[in-house]
Amino acid sequence: MKVTGIKSYSVAGESGRGYFVVRVDTDAGHYGLGEIGIRGWGVAITHAIDHLAELVVGADPWESERIWQEMFRSGFFPVDTVYCCAISAIDIAFWDIKGKSIDKPVYKLLGGPVRNKVVSYAHVQGIDIDDIVDSAKGLAEDGWKFLRWHQLETSDYDDNGVGIFDPLVSMAKTVESFSAVRHAVGWDTQLCLDIHTRLNPALSVQLCRDLEPYKPFFIEDPIRSENPGAYRNLRQQVSLPIAAGEQWGSKWPFREVIEEDLIDYARIDLCIVGGITEALKITHWAETHYIDIVPHNPLGPVSAAACVSLCMASSNVGAQEMPTRPGSFDHKLFPRQIEWENGYSWCPDVPGLGVDFDIDEAEHAYVNPQEMGLQLRRPDGSKTNW
């Protein structure tokens, strides 16, 4: 079996959500689907995929480890995050192809299921506290057992997509929102907060201390990600569980935080980190330090299927991010998706990832992949992370 072609699809579904899906075809008639992790870099990643196709077309998808090494190392200089996103999509598609070629779901290729389903958490929506509480109550009533929202902005976004973020005001609002949601949904529902790399370490420490009475399941991305070693200082001052890693491409940035036990949950993004091949290595590495994985999944059905496949076959799993209930959106583009019920997600016992992508529909749903997204500024006009 040989790869005959790779094609990228930047599309928008009926819901208005955008996706960047990659399809890898073979001469055996099997095809695989992957997804990239950073749509805002879609133009550059498209070129990276086309470049990597020079190595991939003609290769055997079953040789995924060899091909991964070729894609990562053939330029002499180690690849950057743009190329890691491209490698991720191609690698995930390879695993989809491998499963289809032997009529097995991907999670069985990864060692088989250690669990039947994966507890998942939804995204609470809203800018003001009343909306956040209403959203959280609704999700809990629908059966979600884990909920997550991020540190609150302090203004609406203007017509140019720019909002104002005042750290101290946001911290006070965020603590108030956590208290209100905890009161509304009780103590049986697990609550997670994503600081979203918006604070410096000192402010992040203070926010974590203020949140201690409400017992968050974890605090995510409490500081910027460029220097993993900075978690060493944070770890000494914060008693809440720490989750991090969604912005890291490849296993290498995870080295310090795993080997020095600086995090409690590894936020592996399979669509950025290098696909299933690389995520599996990080997962087993984390297991030796009793660190659970909480795969980052803000994307579409292909990403969700890859993440849940990994979680079903891994012993060290905390929860799975699942912003929207699988099967409840964009059926025209994705006529087959993974399953969800009562707060749990799972991949069906079908060949491959268990998700499909309608090529004909995709041809009519094209959107320009180049988008920078929303921006946040401090009150003084300086840049802050979104």
Task: Provide a descriptive summary of the structure in words.
With 386 residues, the protein is of the alpha/beta class. The chain is built from twelve helices and 16 strands. The strands form three sheets. Strands 4, 5, 7, 8, 9, 10, 11, 12, 13 and 14 form a ten-stranded mixed sheet that branches. A three-stranded antiparallel sheet has the order 1-2-3. The radius of gyration is 20 Å and the shape is globular.
- The average pLDDT value, as a whole number, equals 95
CATH class of the largest domain: Alpha Beta
Nearest-angstrom radius of gyration?
20 Å
Largest sheet: 10 strands, mixed
Number of strand segments: 16
Domain module count: 2
Give the proportion of residues in helices: 25-40%
Q: What fraction of residues sit in β-strands?
A: 15-25%
CATH architecture label of the largest domain: Alpha-Beta Barrel
Supply the helix-strand structural class: alpha/beta
* CATH topology descriptor of the largest domain: TIM Barrel
Treating each run of at least 4 consecutive H or I residues as one helix, how many helices?
12
Shape descriptor reads: globular
Task: Flag low-confidence runs.
Answer: none
